[in-house]
């Protein structure tokens, strides 16, 4: 592990949201579910080295820049950056009404 690498920590709610989304896709297409899962996990793992690759979360109120988000395959992944970790906060489908938090 590199010295500037941060650990990835999933909130329980985010993990459940991710599992539910993959299960929903799997009902119609197991191949697509596996593809989406692998790509999203790879992007999340890359955050440990480059958490600033994605812009600050526009839906976070009073965001100091540590709350960030990205979208892929119609999913929006929100995360929080600290000195030692990246915390995955939520995973939502982009067709859903955005939540301010």
Structure commentary:
- This protein is of the alpha+beta class.
- It has a single domain, classed as 2-Layer Sandwich (YaeB-like fold), CATH 3.30.2310.
- Helices cover 34% and strands 26% of the residues.
- The protein is built from two helices and four strands.
- The chain has helices spanning 12-28, 30-46, and strands spanning 7-10, 67-72, 75-81, 85-93.
- Strands 1-4-3-2 form a four-stranded mixed sheet.
- β3 (75-81) and β4 form a beta hairpin.
- It is globular.
Residue-averaged pLDDT: 92
CATH topology: YaeB-like fold
Q: How far from one another are the termini?
A: 33 Å
Number of discrete helical segments: 2
Strand content: 25-35%
CATH homolog superfamily: RelE-like
Index terms:
single chain; 101 residues; alpha+beta; YaeB-like fold; 4-stranded mixed sheet; globular
What's this entry about, in short?
The chain has 101 residues and is α+β, with helices and mostly antiparallel strands. 34% of the residues lie in helices and 26% in strands.
């Amino acid at each position: 592990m590199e010295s500037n690498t941060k650990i990835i920590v999933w909130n329980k709610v985010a993990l459940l949201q991710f599992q539910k989304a993959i299960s929903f896709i799997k009902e119609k297409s197991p191949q697509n579910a596996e593809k989406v899962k692998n790509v999203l996990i790879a992007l999340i793992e890359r955050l440990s080295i480059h958490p600033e690759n994605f812009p600050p979360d526009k839906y976070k109120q009073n965001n100091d820049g540590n709350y960030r988000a990205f979208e892929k395959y119609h999913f929006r992944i929100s995360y929080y950056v600290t000195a030692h970790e990246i915390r995955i906060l939520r995973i939502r489908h982009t067709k859903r009404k955005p939540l301010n938090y």
